[in-house]
Design a protein that fits this description.
- By secondary structure, the protein is of the alpha/beta class.
- It has two domains: 148 residues, 3-Layer(aba) Sandwich (Rossmann fold), CATH 3.40.50.10860; 153 residues, NAD(P)-binding Rossmann-like Domain (Rossmann fold, 3-Layer(aba) Sandwich).
- Helices cover 46% and strands 18% of the residues.
- The strands form two sheets. It has a seven-stranded mixed β-sheet with strand order 9-8-7-6-10-11-12, sandwiched between helices. Strands 1-2-4-3-5 form a five-stranded mixed β-sheet.
- Strand 1 and strand 2 form a beta hairpin.
- The longest helix has 26 residues.
- It is globular, with a radius of gyration of 21 Å.
């Protein structure tokens, strides 16, 4: 029964549900709700691609601009077999509130292609990417909509998009995408920005709750880019990462995993499974481990009504987008868990994307420590602003973050008015 209910509720349903909760708490007028709730533009494209075997295969792609009220749309592109339009709409919506929470001058966008990149060679991925970039060309640009990497996309894919766009314009335009290689105008610190932002937010939460980072037990569900970087930073601050997982399985060591070695093992083998000095456990067992910090860093709806009751973490830090369902939020709140919502916790990626865009536009690049210092300041300021609302209004951290983000977009909407 639970799985049936989960299947019926899409990520976009969850995004709209959380919007209404925050909008009600803000007493947001109906006119403004109508203007900011739904996407401004939704593009669906068909992508015929010639595969290496000579046959042409059709893929489906999407680009959604949820809001450009506070600036150009900003959001990643994901390549995944389960990409749907509803998912992309949800992610674009969250990006709008996320950019507003950390107070950077972007709106929300998102893109995706329904494909399995693990089954495609580099040539096929390049042809797919260039076809997709050509199809969304009318929507993107440094002042319109700026894509970035997301699930199963990377700096090389951003380079192909930047090149495709630049070739059509006749001159290089590095600011059309972020998350690029450094040699094409990328920013130092961008690759690890999401995980570093997660760490800064967890650090702030531990200070607030008086939970020492030293000796804290940490569980990471999803040992990808964000999860592994957050784990590495926590490990370097003497926390014990006792369990980690990826799509192939979960590993556990009650005394703590050696995170630098685990990262090398994952890089070498493609999975955390089989890591020495660890035992394999099930995803259900991983979620139920007693710990101070749980980091869901995989995909949406990882914590739901069916497993939230077994979570025994003091802090749940959403490194992924939408990993908790609204039902899980209620259960965790009743258990006294302190949830760091995605639009706050994982905003480090879009923040450093903003830094990269600024550097590209200025043709002036920063040192790594400048990026880290600016990111830490942005993340910790946003945490304090969300916490202040949470304490003043006696709401959850998710509702407080949504109130902050939605409130800023609503204010900009009122000031701009309606045209024509």
């Amino acid at each position: 029964m639970i799985s049936t209910l989960l299947a019926q509720k899409s990520a976009y349903d969850v995004a709209l549900e959380n919007f209404e909760i925050a909008a009600d708490a803000l007493d947001l007028e109906d006119d403004v709700r109508e203007m900011i709730k739904y996407p401004e533009r939704v593009l669906t494209v068909t992508l015929p691609v010639r595969m290496d075997n000579g046959h042409i295969r059709r893929f489906e792609g999407f680009r959604v601009q949820h809001s450009t009220t506070r600036g150009p749309a900003k959001g990643g592109i994901r390549y995944h077999p389960n990409v749907t339009l509803d998912e992309v709409k949800a992610l674009a919506t969250w990006m709008t509130w996320k950019c507003a929470v950390v107070n950077i001058p972007f709106g929300g966008g998102k893109g995706g292609v329904t494909c399995n990149p693990k089954e495609m060679c580099m040539g096929e991925l390049e042809r797919l990417t260039r076809r997709y970039a050509s199809a969304i060309l009318p929507l993107i640009g440094p002042g319109q909509d700026i894509p970035a990497p997301d699930v199963y996309t990377n700096p090389q894919i951003m380079a192909w998009i930047m090149d495709t766009y630049s070739m059509t314009k006749g001159y290089p335009i590095p600011a059309v995408v972020t998350g690029k290689p450094l040699s094409l105008g990328g920013s130092v610190g961008r690759n690890e920005a999401t995980g570093r932002g997660v760490f800064y937010t967890i650090e702030s939460a531990c200070d607030h709750l008086r939970v020492p980072l030293k000796g804290a037990k940490v569980v990471v569900q999803g040992f990808g880019n964000a999860g592994s970087v957050a784990a590495h930073l926590l490990d370097s601050h003497q926390s014990y990462v006792i369990a980690a997982s990826d799509t192939r399985g979960c590993v556990y060591n009650k005394d703590g995993l050696d995170i630098p070695k685990l990262m090398l093992h994952k890089e070498r083998t493609g999975t955390v499974v089989g890591f020495p000095a660890s035992e394999q456990i099930t995803p259900e067992e991983l979620m139920a481990l007693e710990c101070q910090i749980l980091i869901p860093a995989a995909l949406e709806n990882a914590v739901h009504a069916g497993n939230a009751g077994s979570v025994r973490a003091r802090i749940v830090a959403e490194a992924a987008n939408g990993p908790l369902t609204p039902e899980a939020d209620v259960i965790l709140a009743e258990k006294g868990a302190f949830v760091l919502p995605d639009i706050l916790c994982n905003a480090g990626g879009v923040t450093v994307s903003y830094f990269e865009w600024v550097q590209d536009e200025q043709h002036l690049f920063w040192e790594a420590q400048d990026v880290y210092n600016r990111l830490e300041r942005v993340m910790k300021t946003a945490f304090q602003e969300v916490l202040r609302i949470q304490l003043d209004r006696k709401v959850t951290m998710r509702t407080a973050a949504n109130m902050l983000g939605i409130g800023r977009v609503a204010e900009a909407t009122r000031l701009r008015g309606l045209y024509p």
